[in-house]
Amino acid sequence: MRQFLMVVAFTLLTVGLFAGYSNFGIPQIEPAQPPKQEKIDLGAMTMDKFIALGEKIFNGKGTCTLCHNNLGRAPMLGGTAGLVPKRLVDPRYKGEATNVEEYLIESFVKPSAFVVAGFGKKGTNDTVSPMPDVSAGSIRLNDAEIKAVVAYLQDSGGAEVTVKIPTDAPEQTEQTEGEPRAPFETPEQAIAELGCGACHKVATEEGEVGPDLTKIGGLRDKAYLRQAILDPNADITEGFEKDQMPPDYGAQMYAQELEMMVDYLAGLK
Description:
There is one protein chain. This protein is 38% helix and 6% strand. By secondary structure, it is mainly α. The protein folds into two domains: 35-177, Cytochrome Bc1 Complex, Chain D, domain 2; 182-266, Cytochrome Bc1 Complex, Chain D, domain 2. A hairpin with a 2-residue loop joins strand 3 and strand 4. The radius of gyration is 23 Å and the shape is globular.
């Protein structure tokens, strides 16, 4: 009888410890509500509002500031419009643009047309840019969004804004607080939707400005990977700087998505 009671007590203790870990050991994440799409009538938009839309995309959906910042990961873009005339006649230029507007649009979709010295992919002698085509992949800016960012860069760079507001484009949308989204079903979906591939080489993405994650499971355990997502500045990989990775992924994912991502990354060996 004593042995039976000991077994029961041990079982209850084990269950209690497991429940406690589930409630307090695993981060309890409630993601921020995803954006709701509000229609924007481009036909009725003023140029000032179009430029403001470009600034919002530049700092948000376009993820431009992840690389184009004072950390030196990519060239600063504030004065780019003024540099375009020299770049168009540079022998290293491989594009087809003839003016500032065309060059800026081309730089978004064919970033290797001109690579600023020192910012190319390693081993390419600055002939290949690590920047992705922003009209594809996880960023997927449409034509009107790209033109809005170009208008913003022209305006902020002190150049003439030559972009025309598209009137034949599909209605644009502006992001506001919306209803809770459905959970991501696969790690690949989460990687695509969260834009991980803009910086990391992982899944089918080929980002190169962050650590290569294709074999990260052979180097780091689950606890480290979980912490790296929730608090990316806690431990910095050699060769990289603080504040390069957004710190709010914990607010963008559900707890089960976090654990799904951790399991996926731990399996990459």
